[in-house]
Write a structure and sequence with these properties.
Number of helices: 4
Strand content: 15-25%
Structural class: alpha+beta
Strand order of the largest sheet: 3-2-1-4
Low-confidence stretches: none
Number of strands: 4
Shape: elongated
Radius of gyration: 20 Å
């Protein structure tokens, strides 16, 4: 009876999202620290800058660097700096945004 009432409700039909969402799945814990990283941008900040966030998926430790432009020429030196101090990971996950594609 409730399903019938909801099916007839125009406001319910307008606000209902028909796309079926997949359940969230946890990723497997990497075998050791700094073997699998995830990276993305945060911003723009009020100053116009962005934060490049690199997270170790094993320890959840974040590396955060400030960048002025979303470009490969500004991201590559930061990855060089972070990887030279912490080591090169086995895997780096990104959302394939333009700076990560270069």
């Amino acid at each position: 009876m409730v399903a019938d009432v909801v099916d007839e409700c125009i406001a319910c039909k307008v606000s209902f999202d028909p796309k079926q969402r997949e359940p969230i799945q946890m990723t497997e814990l990497p075998p050791h620290k700094w073997s699998c990283l995830a990276s993305d941008f945060f911003g723009p900040l009020p100053s116009g800058e962005y934060l490049l966030v690199i997270v170790d998926e094993y320890s959840r430790f974040p590396e955060v660097e400030i960048i002025k432009f979303l470009s490969a020429s500004s991201v590559i030196p930061i990855f060089d700096k972070v990887f030279s101090s912490r080591g090169i990971p086995d895997k780096l996950k990104t959302d394939n945004e333009t700076p990560f594609q270069s």
